[in-house]
Request: fold
Amino acid sequence: MLPGDANNQGDVHGGTIMKLVDTAGAIAAVRHARTRVVTAVVDQMTFDAPVHVGDLVELSARLTWTGHTSMEVQVTVVAERVVTGERRVTSTAYVVYVALDETGRPKPVPPFEPRTPDERRRWRAAEARREARLRARQEHQAGR
Reply:
């Protein structure tokens, strides 16, 4: 990360990390759906440790769940102090993307079939997050 990404104490702005997360997550979603996607929800994002100027940032994105036209992707951010080799997880995010057709309308996505115990665990957790999002949306609409 470079000085332009950070505040005057040398900590990288959270918004800079969020942009990187959204880019990595969208790439994973496009790879799965093989079509254009848009960000629908940043369900959860943690900032567990700071990223500093000079750190090398590595992002990994994995599909955790698919619906009819939407997909959830987990993105993990790891920062490395290049000089020492110290690596630490700095952020984790769950981002929902919607696949779009050529006219910009939602389009069905191929189903994701969790095969390993870890993938099945992540799928169940993603479904729980989805249910919580739907409940929150209903409560919000009822309160209007």
In short: DSSP finds two helices and four strands in the chain.
